Structure formats: structure tokens, C-alpha cells
Amino acid sequence: LRKFEQALLQKDWEEVQPGVELKMCASPEGKDETFVLCRSEGRKDKEKEILNRFVARLEAGLNNLKEQAEQGRLRDRQKADRRIGRLLERNSRAASLFEVIVTEIGAGKDKHLAVDVKRNDERYQWALQSGGSYILRTNWKEDDPKTIWKRYIQLTEVEDAFRTEKHDLGMRPIYDQK
């Protein structure tokens, strides 16, 4: 989406249905591809709630780790790094929004860790603004973005129907037993 940032900010969007807007863009590399930028208000709200849930969970976990370090209960750097890694993995949607720095303070028996957590508000704002936006990429020669979007929606409906039928029929996976 960063390659299409300027196009996202422009005003010439077409509404395909209430709450869904489209815009046709040329390939940034000059290839024979067509890009359709899409943004959906419903999807934006959903992605905002999901992101905020991950941010709150990650922030709580990192603050807990920071408090333990301040109380002197966190002394092993490898354990701290592993815990931070697990937190970032579990909350991967929000992981890029935080910078975590672990430093060792003191020496010998007085050695303890300090955990510094910084939230990148610029990235957070970008994530909120770009939420609900997605790109359809095709080599299909079509001038109307509404047609491309409708075909994409039909494709997702067919895939969903096939997935449902497969599940109901119990087609996969097949387990062989002796």
C-alpha cells in the first residue's frame, strides 16, 4: 500500500456499493498489470478493532515484563529475550508498532535488566489510516474497476462455497489407518 500512498489520498474514488470505494491505478513498475485500490468502511472498523486488541495485549505484556525488570525479578537476558519474542509472535499484528530494548545494568550479584518499550505512533497512525484498504492485482485488460471488483467478489464466493461443500462432504483430509 505504501507504493500507492498518493493514490489513496486523492479524491477520485468510485463507490461500487455503500461503504466500498474503488480506484484504478497503473502498475508502479510499468508492467502490463492493473491494480484496483479498494477501501471499505466496514472492513476498516473491523481491522481497527483487531489492531487495538493486539496493541492492548502486547502493551500489557511488555509493561508486565518492564515492571518485573524494575523490581529486580528479571535477571536472565536470554529468558527476557525469549519472553519478548513470544509476546511479539503472539501479537504479530502489533509487533512492528513497538521497539523493545533490553539493557543489562550493574555487574555480579547486583546485575539486573532494564526493559525500555517505545511505541511508534507514526506507524500506528499509518496502520489505522490504511486499515480497510486492499489492492486487487490482475493482468486482465479491463477499464472498469467495478467489473474487476465484482469478479473478485464472485471468485471469493465460489471459493467459500467450495470450502463449505468440501467440509460438509468430509472430502479432506483423508486419513489412512491400518
Radius of gyration: 23 Å
Assembly annotation: single chain
- Per the principal axes of the C-alpha atoms, what is the gross shape? extended
Report low-confidence residues grouped into runs of 5 or more: none
Can you give keywords for this protein?
single chain, 178 residues, alpha+beta, four-stranded antiparallel β-sheet, two-stranded antiparallel ribbon, 49% helix
Task: Summarize the structure in words.
This protein is an alpha+beta fold. 49% of the residues lie in helices and 22% in strands. Strands 1-2-3-6 form a 4-stranded antiparallel beta sheet. It has a two-stranded antiparallel ribbon with strand order 4-5. It is extended.
Please sum up the structure shown.
The protein is α+β, with helices and mostly antiparallel strands and 178 residues long. The protein has 6 helices and 6 strands.
Write the layout of secondary structure elements.
Elements: H1 5-9, E1 14-17, E2 20-26, E3 34-40, H2 41-70, H3 77-90, H4 92-95, E4 98-105, E5 112-119, H5 121-130, E6 133-138, H6 145-169
Antiparallel strand pairs: 1-2, 2-3, 3-6, 4-5
Helix pairs in contact: 2-3, 2-5
